[in-house]
Specification:
single chain, about 70 residues, mainly alpha
């Protein structure tokens, strides 16, 4: 939770759309990774994944998408 606050504040500063896109992207990245690990047999439904790396990746992706003109 210490990471979610500053990243959410940054995305909120970029706009409400960026905030929602970052949140959805983080959840989708985590879900895709979890499903991939389950399909490979390396995880099950009770396996816990850290959410921080997905928050960072989503924030970086959304920030770059907002900053790139066009």
């Amino acid at each position: 939770m210490k990471l979610a606050g500053p990243l959410g504040a940054y995305l909120g500063w970029l706009g409400a759309t960026a905030l929602l896109a970052g949140l959805m992207a983080a959840w989708l990245l985590a879900a895709a990774t979890g499903l991939g690990l389950m399909a490979a047999g390396r995880a099950n439904r009770k396996t816990q994944l850290p959410f921080g790396p997905f928050l960072i990746a989503a924030t970086l992706g959304v920030a770059l998408a907002v900053r790139i003109p066009g």
